[in-house]
Amino acid sequence: MISDTNLIETVSEEAELLQTENNTEQRENQDVSDNLTSTTNNRPNQGKNVGNPPAPRRRVIGDRPRLVDRTVSEGQLLVPKKNLRQQDSEEDHPDFYEFRAKDNVMKTYWLQQTFMSWWALRSTPFAADLLPCKGGAGLTTKFLKEVLEVILEYVQGTFDRSSKILEFHHPNELRERLHLEIPDKAENLDQILQDCQNTLKYCVHTGHPRYFNQLSTGLDVISMAGEWLTAAANTNMFTYEIAPVFTLMERAILKKMREIIGYKDGDGIFAPGGAISNLYAVMCARHKYVPSCKRRGLSGAPNLVLFTSEHSHFSLRRAAAILGIGTDNVVYIDTDKRGKMSLEDLENKIQQAIARGDKPFFVNATAGTTVLGAFDPLNAVADICEKYDLWMHVDGAWGGGVLMSRKHRHKLDGIHRADSVTWNPHKLMGVLLQCSAILIKEDGILEDCNSMRAPYLFQQDKHYDVSYDTGDKTMQCGRHVDVFKFWLMWRAKGTRGFENHVNKLFELAGYLLEKLKSREGFKLVHEKPEHTNVCYWYIPPSLRAMEEGTEKQLLLHKVAPAIKARMMATGTLMVGYQPLGDKVNFFRMVFSNPAATKADVDFLLDETERLGRDL
Ligand SMILES: Cc1ncc(COP(=O)(O)O)c(C=O)c1O
Questions:
Q1: Does residue 308's CB lie within 6 angstroms of at least one atom of ligand 1?
Q2: Would you place residue 259 in the very low, low, confident or very high pLDDT band (cuts 50, 70, 90)?
Q3: Which of 33, 399, 402, 435 has CB 3.0 to 4.6 Å from 367, enough for a Cys bridge?
Q4: pLDDT reading at 417 higher than 60
Q5: What is the pLDDT of residue 179?
């Protein structure tokens, strides 16, 4: 290892040597960016990561580009000639450089500068060296390209079936590996890149072809590009003033979605998820039936009651809690074997509420229930809502995407009669999270119930048409741009592309269903799912011969969680499980992943068996 004193001498000698050389012109004309892309790897922080250092390769946000950048941007006449690396090993050590000075005067300066720079070389650049720092353009480009490389590696790994879906660690262990503490002093950019790499390393690859765990799966490349661009634009949806493009896009997309539903007119907004979209629906209905609520609250108002099936999403119940309706005033409606709402029970319970002196005001019909994928009979529910003057909402968070398929959209017949619809393109349609819309039949109600007319933001005397300032009809103030990735994806696929995507998912579900019917050890929860949800039990050999009864059910209840734990430990597959009513834990396969194929379905069955046959 060279000491500091040695280094000064070494540098001086090198400088003398340089002076005698004669190819200045050529070097001076060399593009500085060449040097920016060279691979100096002087990383003082390397090895600092706790646990197993995850970085298989060294990052190249090195010290040299920083030096070159500064040298050039400050207008000095120093041009790096070449990197005299003392060794090419992976060990950390200061690299040495030759620099060509234009004249002797500069040479003196250069010596000093080089020495000082040597100290700088001991640390890699920091965020403060990036734009808007003067001269930070090159380094910023380099840094972002490095980040992109990290992301691309992740994306490629995501689609590689031989790669793991996740590297599971229990929270305590993962906390250690992640290095989560927030420092007082800035970390350098190498460390920041390392953090990026480390973060993705422990993320679940939700785009992996064998990831079926949630309703939102897959990694659409165009949608991801849209999300990147959205981040670069970094704007806020509340006013046209600062989001002119995205505001117009949102209008166009919401109009298209309303047309697909069958609304002639209406309104809508992108919301942070289906739960919030459902909250919007209940809020609009509350406003319609108790308009005074906006000012006076619910005191003195009739006791509002909402109806939803026992298989509906919990967000309806939560909406009742949030909006002051109260969870006791959520009335659950029975379902049939397939999970569809019973019309008879709905009407009975509405009548019972009226008889109690309560005020029924809202019925939620689910298009695609979360677990079984059932579609409530929308036309019949609409008839009941009309009869009793109730707001009809369709929670199509999961099933809304089925509207894109001419083959399957009949499952939502009658949806145009609903007062509001929740539709999450981030589920079945594969748009990246988050992307959820609430569509409302009546124009103006959203604005009516939410507007606060904040004069600092929604000035009415702006020089453009302020009806394009959508922020005042939302529950939020600032709002993320969720529309762009969807718009871009729709452009890239076309409506027919989305239709093919949805049809393919249904085909895969049908394929799995047929396989399950004939495969030993698997049992369907019900044989005619309406959506791409296919629910089943895996029954290990040890339980197959057992007599039906409580004891067997108790043991079967433990099978899915045990297999799931093994799935996560091996990282080969991820499928969700849950109990439902009196049914013990079963697997819920849901198809929304565009990367999945029939071979992945075969793998699912083989792997489930492999992981569970000894239980
Ligand atoms: C039927 C239904 N509605 C609403 C939601 C909530 O959607 P989000 O997770 O986007 O809030 C879900 C989520 O799974 C759902 O299945």
A1: no
A2: very high
A3: 399
A4: yes
A5: 86
Give start-end residues of each CATH 3.40.640.10 domain in the chain: 236-484
CA 275–ligand 1 middle distance (angstroms): 6
Q: Please tell me the distance from the alpha carbon of residue 17 to that of residue 7, in angstroms, as a whole number.
A: 15
**Interval between CA 304 and ligand 1 midpoint (Å):** 23
As a whole number, mean pLDDT of residues 267-282 equals 98
Question: 370 CB less than 6 Å from ligand 1?
Answer: yes
* Contact criterion met (CB below 8 Å) for 81 and 99: yes
313 lines ligand 1 (CB under 6 A): yes
- What's the pLDDT at 547? 96
Q: State how far the Cα of 194 lies from the Cα of 45, in Å rounded to an integer.
A: 10
Using the mean position of ligand 1's atoms as its centre, give its distance from the Cα of residue 364 in Å.
13
Nearest CA to ligand 1 atom 16: 370
Q: How far is CA 580 from CA 76, 520, 522, in A?
A: 72, 23, 18
Ligand 1 centre distance from Cα of residue 274 (Å): 5
**Other CB atoms within 10 Å distance of the CB of residue 299:** 8
Segment 558-610, tens digit of pLDDT: 999 999 999 999 999 999 999 999 999 999 999 999 999 999 999 999 999 99
Place of tokens 């999270």: 433
Residue-wise pLDDT tens digits, 163-196: 999 999 999 999 999 989 999 999 999 999 999 9
Which residue from 217, 270, 310, 424 has its CB within 8 A of the most atoms of ligand 1, so it is best to mutate? 424
- CB contact at 8 A, 482 and 435: yes
The rounded mean pLDDT for the chain is: 85
Tell me the CA–centroid distance for residue 408 and ligand 1, in Å: 20
Whether 65 contacts 124, CB under 8 Å:
no
Q: What is the mean pLDDT of residues 117-128?
A: 65
Architecture of domain 236-484: 3-Layer(aba) Sandwich (3.40)
Q: How many other CB atoms are found less than 10 A from the CB of residue 184?
A: 5
| pLDDT tens profile 442-490 | 999 999 999 999 999 999 999 999 999 999 999 999 999 999 999 999 9
Mean pLDDT value across residues 501-510: 98
Pocket-testing residue among 206, 213, 215, ligand 1, by greatest number of atoms within 8 A of Cβ = 215
* 10, 96, 99, 110, 137 from 114: Cα distances, Å: 11, 10, 8, 6, 22
- Show the 3-state SS of 283-345: HHHHHHHCCCHHHHCCCCCCCEEEEEECCCCCHHHHHHHHCCCCHHHEEEECECCCCCECHHH
Q: Which atom of ligand 1 sits closest to the CA of residue 278?
A: 4
